[in-house]
Design brief:
eight-stranded antiparallel barrel, Porin, 60s Ribosomal Protein L30, Chain: A, 4 helices, 2 domains, single chain, 328 residues, alpha+beta
Length: 328
């Protein structure tokens, strides 16, 4: 409890302060297996043991494929016969690398460090050890929804020690279990400017010209915020209308499919919109004050995300110039 309570407060405070960021938290429960004992002065009767293990963790998604996690893990007690044991617990900090196999299933690997606390029981009650050891892991994660997922995972802890009070023993610990994960939502979506514009007629009897609205949609590759050269020519009509009519404005809206966390998709859609807006402003000398850009993430699909084709149609940027009426 000396380690759980401070970490729980840290998790609660960090998530509350970062409600607009792709944070997630979870708890895991399973078993621990101890193996590969080495010792100089102690000959335990039973070396390979099993016990209940579990913990809590907090993570942050920097990318759809990369996250950093920290948390508290309890690894049970390794028994050395005759009611002698060593209790193990500590704090993980690991990098998590993810491959999205399907819309709902991903495979991940973890690597980092574990600061452990090893405390002896029974004859070992005077023995206490602390240290930093490497840890690695792997598993699969299934998403029930955008916010809730479960993991089946394995994690390896290398070379925990007890090296005082006349005891010199170390061993490896293997954790295996299931986790329940909750991911916080994306930021509130940016308000969309209405694409319909009213035609304002001049009060004085002058000839008016109605300029029709133009819309261009640029597709994007999966998880990409790069503007493919083969689609650049499609922006030419929009750019020409902005050049010909200084009164015209441009609305750029980015979209994604539903793959990956919602918060990450929101940021990706904003990056895509900014990319198209910056390209038009830079290459055609369009004043940025005439451009309104926003991202809708995965919230406005034009096709079903259940198919590969539908997801491809949803990865897009819509560039729109409203119609306007000008005096000749």
């Amino acid at each position: 409890m000396n380690y759980i309570l401070p970490l729980a407060l840290l998790v609660s405070g960090a998530v509350t302060a970062a409600s607009d960021n792709p944070w997630y938290a979870g708890a895991r429960l399973g078993g621990a297996h101890y193996s590969d004992f080495t010792n100089n002065n102690w000959n335990p009767e039973n070396q390979d043991q099993n016990d209940l293990a579990g913990g809590i963790f907090l993570g942050y998604n920097y990318k759809s494929w990369f996250a950093v996690e920290t948390g508290y893990t309890y690894l049970g007690e390794a028994e050395f016969g005759n009611n002698n044991s060593v209790e193990q617990q500590g704090v993980d900090i690991v990098s998590k690398f993810t491959w999205q196999a399907t819309d709902s299933l991903s495979v991940f690997a973890k690597a980092g460090g574990f600061y452990y606390f090893a405390d002896g029981q029974g004859q070992f009650s005077a023995s206490h050890d602390r240290g930093l050891i490497p840890t690695t892991g792997a598993g699969v994660e299934y998403f029930f929804s955008k916010n809730v997922s479960t993991r089946l995972e394995y994690q390896y802890y290398h070379d925990l020690d007890i090296n005082n009070s006349g005891i010199n023993t170390n061993w490896n610990t293997h954790f295996y279990g299931v986790s329940l994960v909750y991911s916080w939502g994306a930021p509130a979506p940016v308000a969309i400017v209405p694409i319909e514009a009213a035609v304002v007629m001049a009060a004085e009897p002058q000839k008016m010209i109605n300029i029709k609205p133009l819309t261009v949609e640029i597709p994007f590759a999966f998880d990409s915020n790069l503007l493919a050269p083969k689609y650049i020519d499609q922006l030419q009509p929009i750019a020409q209308q902005l050049i010909n009519y200084p009164e015209a404005e441009l609305i750029v809206i980015g979209h994604t499919d539903s793959s990956g966390p919602e918060a990450y998709n929101q940021k990706l859609s904003e990056q895509r919109a900014a990319l198209v807006a910056d390209y038009l402003a830079t290459h055609f000398a369009i004043d940025k004050s005439r451009i309104k850009e926003s991202g809708r993430g995965e919230l406005a699909p034009k096709a079903s995300n259940a198919t590969k084709e539908g997801r491809a149609l949803n990865r897009r940027v819509s560039a729109f110039t409203p119609g306007l009426t000008i005096k000749k």
